[in-house]
Predict the structure of DNA ligase (ATP).
Amino acid sequence: MPDRIDPCLALLKPKPPKGSQWAFEVKWDGYRLAAHIEPSGVRILTRGGHDWTDRFPAIAAEARRLPVATAILDGEAVVFDERGRSDFGRLQQSLGGRGGKRMSREAVLMAFDLLYFDGRDLTGTELGARRHLLEGLVPAGGEEAIRLSEEIEADGDVLLRIACEHGLEGIIAKDRNSTYRSGRGGEWLKIKCIQSDGFAIVGYEKSTASFGGIGRLLLAARKGDELVYVGGVGTGFNERSAADLREQMDKLIIAKPAIDTGRKRNAVFVRPELVAEIEYRAWTHDGKLRHASYKGLREEQDTAAVYAVDLALKAG
């Protein structure tokens, strides 16, 4: 049984693909995890390969109850809001914020693939057969800490519209005939209702009227080997997330900005070590984020990549 398998990642596309070989699922908004089940015990690994078994006790306990001797489940850990939508900010708070060490008993693993099963490596097997085995192991429905991410029989365009109307992040399309390949090879595609990516925090503008005293975060993206300013975000905070964020930023204060942010009043600059997950609708003609909203801080263990702005502008 492999010690670890690098995950298959979805390639961002503007529209759903056409053709009967494409299967569709909801795009979950959480942390990518792999649950390794062996007779010796269960391990829960993050996308970057960190062992977070202790952070997700309910998922680990449910994995031990599954009727299988050896397996590797691929899925996304999520926490749902009151409307049944996965909420990245709630997941982060359940873990104690960025760098926190709390256990999340609320998190649920939405399992969408099976990479190893009863002594057999399934990565060379086509998706349709892997899904058939997964559905036998993790039944649809139920309220357990491991649930099946169900395949949805629908036209991709219709499904995307419905997902967006219900406030979901988007949909995933997967080639039923594809084997499991690590990386972003195009076998899996993601189509988003709203763009959501990681941006480096380079400072903030102070405000006495806002949560945590944060009027607006100042953000940067990658351009080649450098960081460039891409505007700010002043919405999406609540009292708790703003307080957590302010505590993290205050440890990183520097006298001069790390990059050129233009003239800013009441600005505090920080070393660009924190990566914020930001929702946004589009880019302005001069390369700034439009209608941006803060979702939370990305963990290093969840590969907190800073978005490449030149790619973003081409995609936009």
In short: The helical segments are 57-65, 88-94, 127-137, 156-165, 239-250, 309-315. The first helix runs from residue 57 to 65. The chain has six helices and 19 strands.
